[in-house]
Design brief:
The protein folds into two domains: 123 residues, NAD(P)-binding Rossmann-like Domain (Rossmann fold, 3-Layer(aba) Sandwich), CATH 3.40.50.720; 178 residues, NAD(P)-binding Rossmann-like Domain (Rossmann fold). The strands form two sheets. A seven-stranded parallel β-sheet has the order 8-7-6-9-10-11-12, with helices on both faces. By secondary structure, the chain is an alpha/beta fold. The mean pLDDT is 96.
């Protein structure tokens, strides 16, 4: 019997998103609807599995964990990369790693970022809570038309955000370490320094990959440059922003607010101070969480497992 673990299915939808029965009666699929937070917990829960399926980077798979999974033969990751999986350790153990295609997460994440922008500018979460308490019209909103959108990162998603910003009549600024004025102009944005972007933007939206150069990139110094009326949007990765510095800026009303979909620790702990602030819009990492994306991910997972069992694995992922 091939034992298959499908991890971090918070909504309990994995089994309905694809035809797992095509794998055959000699496969048993077990779905985990909770996050296995530690190596110890994951090693104990997954020791008996031949295959583990990861949903994005919800659970890290370091070398220490791989070494403690004696039956592991195949790892399937969603999307075309996974920065929290030690590929070299998997290869050294002889574990095959395959990946799914990207689904429609490109559109899904940028549309969510746009939604967070509008929700922050019009204080929708705050007003929604007030309506449920019998209150009426407590805030004055801000239109996005004619305002300045500052994009940290102008890759695939950053370019899409530039399109959406221009469609709203926004002036679009952009910065990243390797960005040039010509590339920014081609995407419909104006290249500026990081400092100028934070000083002039009414909305700062982050569209960078988390790495050593971007970890903590938005800290107290950058937040201090922002207008008191400006909002920060993060749908990329939590650690790109210094969380403590952001909490301080929000608590002291040094910026108008933030729209967040990503956090240093996920799921966000129940007692986290971000949950107590009225000027932050919180989403539970919904960027890629759409039915279309999930169907693509899980159907490709089944395909990856079936191909591997047939001795012809598809979409192999290898260490650089």
């Amino acid at each position: 019997m091939t034992q298959i673990a499908v991890l971090d299915d918070y909504q309990r939808v994995a089994l309905s998103m694809a035809d797992w029965s095509r794998l055959g009666a000699d496969c048993r699929v077990t779905v985990f609807d909770r996050n296995l937070r530690t190596v110890e917990e994951a090693a104990e829960a997954l020791a008996g599995f031949d295959v583990i399926c990861l949903l994005r980077e919800r659970m890290a798979v370091p070398a220490e964990l791989i070494a403690r999974l004696p039956k592991l033969k195949l790892i399937v990751v969603t999307g075309t990369h996974n920065r929290t999986l030690d590929l070299a350790a998997a290869e050294a153990r002889g574990v095959t790693v395959t990946h799914t295609r990207g689904g429609d997460s490109y559109y899904a994440t940028t549309e969510l970022a746009l939604g967070l922008m509008i929700a922050c500018a019009r204080r929708l979460a705050f007003e929604d809570r007030g309506m449920r308490q019998g209150l009426w019209q407590r805030t004055l909103g801000m239109t996005l038309h004619g305002r300045t959108l500052g994009l940290l990162g102008l890759g695939r998603m950053g370019k899409r955000m530039a399109e959406l910003g221009r469609a709203l009549g926004m002036r679009v600024l952009a910065w990243s370490v390797n960005l040039t004025a010509d590339r920014a102009e081609a995407a419909g944005a104006t290249y500026v320094s990081k400092e100028r972007l934070f000083r002039e933007s009414d909305i700062v939206s982050i569209h960078l990959v988390l790495g050593e150069r971007t970890r903590g990139l938005v800290g107290a110094a950058e937040l201090t440059l922002m207008k008191p009326s400006a909002f920060l949007i993060n749908t990329s990765r939590g650690p790109i922003v210094d969380e403590a510095a952001l909490i301080t800026a929000l608590s002291e009303n040094r910026i108008a607010g933030a729209g967040l979909d990503v956090y240093d620790v996920e799921p966000l702990p129940a007692e986290h101070p971000l949950r107590t602030l009225d000027n932050v819009m919180l989403a539970p990492h919904l960027g890629f969480v759409t039915e279309g994306t999930y169907r693509g991910f899980y159907e490709d997972m089944v395909e990856c497992i079936a191909a591997w069992r047939a001795g012809a694995p598809v979409r192999l992922l290898r260490a650089a």
